[in-house]
Amino acid sequence: MVEDRLACRECHHVNDPDAQTCALCGSSSLTEDWAGYVIITKPADSQIAEEMNVSEAGAYALKVR
């Protein structure tokens, strides 16, 4: 489930619950304390991706604490 996953504090990418590092940026700063969920499929055409500074397709947390 999405609630069990870990979000990266650096890039907000949502990772598997057993991840030790972020699959996107490699950071080890992962947290269970996040809210909101967005899936970006075409970052080049997405205003949300532009606001979040996202250049790779994937699942992202909107708020990471």
TrEMBL record:
Spt4/RpoE2 zinc finger domain span: 5-65
Gene3D superfamilies tied to this protein: 2.20.28.90
Keyword Amino-acid biosynthesis attributed: no
Record key words, sorted: DNA-directed RNA polymerase, Metal-binding, Transcription, Transcription regulation, Zinc
SMART domains: Spt4
Keyword Disulfide bond: no
GO cellular component: DNA-directed RNA polymerase complex
Biological processes per GO annotation: regulation of DNA-templated transcription
Origin: domain of life: Archaea
Molecular-function annotations in GO: zinc ion binding
Pfam families for this protein: Spt4
Residues the record lists as binding Zn(2+): C8, C11, C22, C25
Role summary: Stimulates transcription elongation.
NCBIfam families with a match to the protein in the record: RNAP_arch_Epp
Quaternary organization: Heterodimer composed of Spt4 and Spt5.
Protein name: Transcription elongation factor Spt4
Organism: Halorubrum tebenquichense DSM 14210
Gene name, Swiss-Prot/TrEMBL: spt4
